Every structure is written in structure tokens, then in C-alpha cells.
Amino acid sequence: MEHGKLWALVMNATRARILRGVRKDSQQGETELVLRAPHRALRDIMSDRPGRTAASSGRGRRSAMEYASDPVREDAVAFAKEVVVLLETHRKAGDFDRLAVFASQDMLGIVRKELTDGLKATVTVEVAKNLMHETESDLMRIVAQP
Questions:
Q1: Which of 6, 39, 91, 115 could make an S-S bridge to 98, C-beta 3.0–4.6 Å?
Q2: Residue 52 maps to a domain
């Protein structure tokens, strides 16, 4: 394992765990940061039904319009941006110089797009796996593996 301060981001669309001070010789790092996305019920997000449109055939037929966006994905992107801002602040402060990213497959793609160039340079490992259910000590062991 390389020298330097290693942090690990474990994330899915609703929760992020940031393990600080990951070391190969330790089962426990420094404190773990936990962030949660604001909970919004899908029925609240999509409470306004999309409009209806008249068919172009002119026979008075109307059909429902599709939603213009995916509000669940938009929430995941907003949460990823929030986590990236926090990580970038700590990176600039010199709190870590290497970052391991473990996220569900969809979330990993979102996180990759949101990472700043500075954070991208610190990423040493990316794993498309949801490890949110793991205990802190198990996460430390998984992350510290060479």
C-alpha cells in the first residue's frame, strides 16, 4: 500500500460513509463521517402530473406527456455533488491525498462525473459494489487490502 493519508468513500444514492485515516495495520481509523440524502417520497416528488397534449391527427385525441426528467436520479446527483463538495474541502485542507471509492454501480457513474480534477487525481481505487451494510471495522479491512 502506498504512503499517504487514505480516505474511503462508501456510497449509495441515499447514504455516504467517509472513512478517514484508513491504515493497513489498524481495524479502526479515525472517526467515520456519515451523510444522508434528504428523504423525499416519490409521491411528493411526482405529485404534479405531467400535462396532456392533443394528438396531431386533429381528431380530438389527447395523450399524457412523459415526465421531462427522472427526479430520483436528480436527487442522487444532488447528493453526490454535496458529498464531492465536502471531500474537495478536506482534500484542499490536506486531510487526505488518496481516496478509495466504493459505490453501487449507478452511483459510481454519477460520482465519477461529479468529481473535481483534484479529487480525480487522488482516486486510487474504484469498486462498483454497495458496501453500506458492512460494519466500520469490516469496511476498514476491505479498504486497507492491497
A1: 6
A2: no
